[in-house]
Amino acid sequence: MHTDYLPEIRIKKTLQRQAVAWPHCRTQNAGNGETQLPRFHFTPFEMPEAAKVLRREVRAFLREEMPQSTSATKARSWSGGAAEFSRKLGERGWLGMTLPKKYGGHEKSYAERYVVIEEMLVAGAPVGLHWVADRQSGPLILRYGTEEQRQKILPRIARGEAFFCIGMSEPGSGSDLASVRTRARKVDGGWRINGQKIWTSTAQHAHYMIALVRTGDGETRHAGLTQFLVDMRSDGLTVKPIANLTGESHFNEVFFDDVFVPDSMLIGNEGGGWQQVTAELAFERSGPERYLSSIRLFLEFLRVTGENPSELEKQLIGRMTAEMWTLRNMSMSILGKLSAGEDPAVDAAVVKDLGTSFEQEVPRLIQANTRSDVTLETGDAFNDTLSYLLQNSPSFSLRGGTREILRGIIARELGLR
Amino acid sequence: MSELRTLLADTTTKVLEGIKDTSLDAAWKQIAETGLANVLVSEDDGGFGGNWEDALVVIRACGHFAVPAPLPEAILATHLAKTAKLALPDGIVTVSPNATGKLNGDRFTGELKSVPWGRTASHVLAVIDGQTILASKSDAKIEQHENPAAEPRDALRFENAKVEKGAGESDALSALALLRTGQIAGALDHALELSVGYTRERKQFGRPLAQFQAIQQQLAVLAEETAAAGMAAAAAFRAMDRGDADFEIAAAKLRANRAARTSTGIAHQVHGAMGFTAEYSLHHLTRRLWAWQTEAGNERFWGERLGTRVAARGASAFWPDLVARSEA
Question: Is the Cβ–Cβ distance between A349 and B224 less than 8 Å?
Fold first, then answer.
């Protein structure tokens, strides 16, 4: 044993200083002798065998059935859509996978659903039309809906025939969702809705909206909110597309002018909308679509740089690979929690913020490290994908809960607020 | 958490608390007594019989407590020795990330650079052209160096020194990178705890710093980066248990380095001048986090290595390869 490496006094001082830190870590001890895990604990998740088998089937399906499209179209993936493709997925049993069989579902695991959507996103399949229904509306109706709603709607979701949109944001209510003012007034046999929703993606294609509206003025601002299943063909309901900065229209304004919704279409509890919507958002925030939005560009970058890229390009490829590898592991860790029946809401906020920051960074980094100019549209796969994603990337950290809201959720978990 | 991991976590915490007022000599004696360096050694051979995921509990704790002793290296030494079918001597055995020179039979002439705690160790394991050797420190001429955290990183020169030669091939640099990702994850856990604790106590403008949104948003990022580093490390340690972990280690070191870079900045910013003092303990973590980013390969090194591998496989193999790493 040797002690000649540092003067004794220096070691002692070092160790004493460290002692200052230790009481803080002790606060992490549960007091029962077991060391408590850090607050955000992500553990690797092992895909079950059934999911691995399914992945091969999905890949084979995509080789046959993936519509011919350009790389830039593929990059749209869950922002694009094709009704025919949605129905094919329904036929294969790949929509409403986790729903009970008696409602047309397939009683598959979350892991199997995860594998399907992961492969669809990477392939750039046009999954946008059924996306909301499959991801959150179906599970929401199963959990909070009436028996009649389940029987009527869920089989159609599973067949790829019922598309949904989410009626949350309003002109005065973005991140401050609890301030919604669209109101439902009780009438004989149902409700009359008046007001306006905005930024409603795919409203122009949807059959139903699940709308969060005010039915009363409770003691707190979160009370008095209720969710309704609104038929998009209802009288008095108008959809007006909004062009985004690229000129395309994905999101819409939706106007409610005395729209009648029967009592049977109220979801869950009157006044229980806030709690239901919070549960719904956990589904909305936890999936692989929150880090894979730019993968088509990454693959294009790999294609154009070829087998022997420059040192700079290699570094960029290496770094982005490391990010994707880590994000995939984190995303699958959340899948593990969902599978175990845990509530992953806070972890989902962590992964969504990291994931959307990454997918937003990809086009910017590639732009900074490519030799070519970026032009609006040239027919060149790399250019067009880069051009599309550069312009669309601002939405990544807005949709489904802004970066700032997510960080607020994390800060609350840290005990800061 | 498994029983073994709970035991390891408790033991590690206790022994590290115990050494706070002793010399390193006594500290190492206590560490050696607990047998923590033998976490990977089989129970038949007097170890814990743990795997790399179990070892992560100890190595992460070494980062958390900024342990001034080569415990992670000692753990790695048992693994490299076993792989190379070498018997380890008593005393502290460390591992060299960087060996140059020539092996002539069982005689080694050359230099081992950046040897962690080289001056304190009794022996060093190194890999020359894929071959593991065990050299005795007493045969070396030592040049003392320290990393920015004042951890010994010495150069050991050997002149025709007799060494033990092992069997098979090993990659010491990659294995050391694995250790550092585990330590980075642990140090970040602690830096986050300190930052949260400090901002909840420190008041300005009549309220705790933690109540300012600008602070909350920064600490959320610190928590996210900490989680990412922890995940990357966990995946790499798990891959070690399965065999080939080159991909996972490269990815983990890249991700952990990035997390360290971002997080040290935030931790210091929210601590203000207090975090910059010698008195306060944050620098024991942050100076190590800076040092460990360079050690066993920085982002340029691992980025190029991982990028070369991915590019060689081409665009169409990228996703299937990535999935296969966890679903083989």
Answer: no
How high is the mean pLDDT of chain B? 94
The SS3 assignment for A252 reads strand
Task: Read off the pLDDT band of B254 (50, 70, 90).
Answer: very high
**How many residues in chain A?**
417
Enumerate the residues of chain A whose CB falls inside 8 A of the CB of residue B318.
Answer: 298-299, 302, 321
List of chain A residues whose C-beta atoms are within 8 Å of the C-beta of residue B326: 44, 46-47, 328-329, 332
Among A10, A25, A49, A332, most B C-beta atoms within 10 A, so best to mutate, is: A25
Q: Are residues B30 and B79 in the same domain?
A: yes
What ipTM was assigned to the predicted interfaces of this complex? 0.97
In DSSP notation, A78-108 reads GGSB-HHHHHHHHHHT-SSTTS-GGGT----
Yes or no, beta carbons of B322 and A299 under 8 Å apart? no
Same domain assignment for residues B140 and B20: no
Which ranges of B213-295 would DSSP assign to H, the alpha helix? 213-242, 246-271, 282-294
Q: Which helix (H) or strand (E) holds B195?
A: helix B172-201
CB B139 within 8 A of CB B174: no
Q: Would you say residue B17 lies in a domain?
A: yes
In terms of domains, do B145 and B227 share one?
A: no
Provide the mean pLDDT of chain A. 90
Integer Cα distance of A352 and A289 in angstroms = 9
**Contact present, B62 and B49 (Cβ < 8 Å):** no
With beta carbons less than 8 A apart as the criterion, state whether A230 and A190 touch. Answer: no
Residue A231: C-alpha distances to residues A163, A164, A237, B85 (Å): 11, 10, 9, 72
**How high is the pLDDT of residue A7?**
32
Provide CB contacts within 8 A for A43, sequence distance 6+: A333, A336, B234
CA triplet A319, A320, A325: central angle to 5 degrees?
Answer: 100
Residues B226 and B310 in one domain: yes
Kindly give the pairing relationship between strand A164-167 and strand A208-214. parallel
